[in-house]
Amino acid sequence: MNLSPSEFKSNARRAVHDQHLREKIKKATGTSLVKRAEVVGEIPEWEELRQEGHDRRKEVIDNLDRYIRTFTGTARDRGMIVHYAGTHDDATKIIYDIIRRTSVDTVVKSKSMITEELHLNAMLETNGIRVIETDLGEYIIQLAGETPSHITAPALHKSKEDIARLFQEKLNIPYTDDPVKLTAVARERLRKEFLNARVGISGVNFACADTGTLTIIENEANARLCTVLPDLHIAVMSIDKIIPSIDDLPLFLKLLPRSASGQRMTSYVSMINGPRSHHNPDGPRQVHVVMLNGGRLQLAKHPAWKESLYCIRCGACMNVCPVYQSVGGHAYGAVYPGPIGAVVTPTLFDMKEARELPFASSLCGACTDICPVKIDLHHHLLLERREIVDRGYKPFTEKIAMSVWRWFMLSPARFELAGRIGWVLQKILGKKLPLPGWTPQRQAPAIAAKSFRSLMKGDSKK
Ligand code: SF4
104 CA to middle of ligand 1, Å? Predict the structure, then answer.
């Protein structure tokens, strides 16, 4: 697969013909959806909670500057060292400089989509720093030399047999596809790394503006070990991870695990309030918070597209999307796949390069219906399609074809004429009427000799 969103069409074509891949994706997303439906069904006020989540996220994004200042102040009061990074390059440089000062050559890391966005691992490894991914899914992906195919389940595209072969080859163990044994192997290897690590890197799920608290949710305790055992913890987050108050946490802790993994609550919820102190002798000596803007402040000012920053990265829109289910995450060639990826990749990164992604949708609206913070995803996809056409990023031939189509559609007489032309063409070409992207897979339906309108006219004369 080519990891560029401009290659979406060819990537998707390849993925759609990979029956094995489609079965794995269908199984994993289907299981998530069933579990989610069960736990969401237990909450009669789910729709009200979604609206509340939407409103709390809107409050932050509408006042992002102020919330950044508030969070920075409270986190510093707690003894954390807060760094503001305007660009992706700034963020990676800040992180590298922090690590370089410790003279370590290995860091342990828990799952974080922002570090994927920064391509942090590649940069650190180029500079001689070994990065150990400690989330099981990320560990598998790292061993395979791949990128995550889903934002909460990075190895969703791999079966247990794929993982068994990978572990056999890379970890030099006898083949076993028993998930318990495979997990035990990973745990044993990772435990040694945790005990030796002096620097831990994590993401952040929610940063509370009023208390400076960093919240991380997870199921494997690897994030907790990354943030507690080493002497130095670097928390990497984008500025939109801020929520107004610690009082909002119960709301988001109801919405996120249910939507992401169909759990009432994840196994671990870590709330980090600063480095160790004489009152609290456990934890790291230093906590650095690296806050990435990366175009988000600009996006927050756009009247429509700002809504994509409400996302709490649950991944439910991917699970429910018929396009994602058919092609998987890698086909998008972007850090964020699925409907939210198709929305944010053009607006946050490069609209020209990602111009195919907003068209990777049937516009069925299932993503909008499932989103726990009520982001109107399919309408954003439509808006972006219009913007892409207005900027002239679609092929000239498509523009001509749509103009011709519009010309025929705007007049009943021309519409009728189009039907006659189609009928004549079908008479000449038989059923092989060539419609690119349509008839190679399907037979064109036969065009009736008499149109519905002429039949109606005939009837009304009788
Ligand atoms: S857009 Fe909504 S459903 Fe999709 S990942 Fe974000 S919060 Fe979840």
Answer: 37
Q: List, in order of start, the domains of the chain with CATH numbers.
A: 43-298 (3.40.50.10420), 413-461 (no CATH)
Report the separation in Å between the CA atom of 4 and the middle of ligand 1, taken as the mean of its atom positions: 22
Q: Return the pLDDT at 54.
A: 98
Q: Which atom of ligand 1 is nearest to the CA of 338?
A: 4
Closest residue by Cα to atom 2, ligand 1, is 371
Q: What is the pTM of this model?
A: 0.91
The secondary structure of the chain, three-state, reads CCCCHHHHHHHHHHHHCCHHHHHHHHHHHHHHHHHHHHHHHCCCCHHHHHHHHHHHHHHHHHCHHHHHHHHHHHHHHCCCEEEEECCHHHHHHHHHHHHHHHCCCEEEECCCHHHHHHCHHHHHHHCCCEEEECCHHHHHHHHHCCCCCCCCCCCCCCCHHHHHHHHHHHHCCCCCCCHHHHHHHHHHHHHHHHHHCCEEEECCCEEECCCCCEEEEECCCHHHHHHHCCCEEEEEEEHHHEECCHHHHHHHHHHHHHHHHCCCCCCEEEEECCCCCCCCCCCCCEEEEEEECCCHHHHCCCCCHHHHHHCCCCCHHHHHCHHHHHHCCHHHCCCCCHHHHHHHHHHHHCCCCCCCHHHCCCCCCHHHHHCCCCCCHHHHHHHHHHHHHHCCCCCHHHHHHHHHHHHHHCCHHHHHHHHHHHHHHHHHHCCCCCCCCCCCCCCCCCCCCCCHHHHHHHHHHC
Q: What is the pLDDT of residues 211-261, one digit of tens each?
A: 999 999 999 999 999 999 999 999 999 999 999 999 999 999 999 999 999
Query: Which residue has its alpha carbon closest to ligand 1 atom 6?
Result: 311
Using the mean position of ligand 1's atoms as its centre, give its distance from the Cα of residue 212 in Å. 24
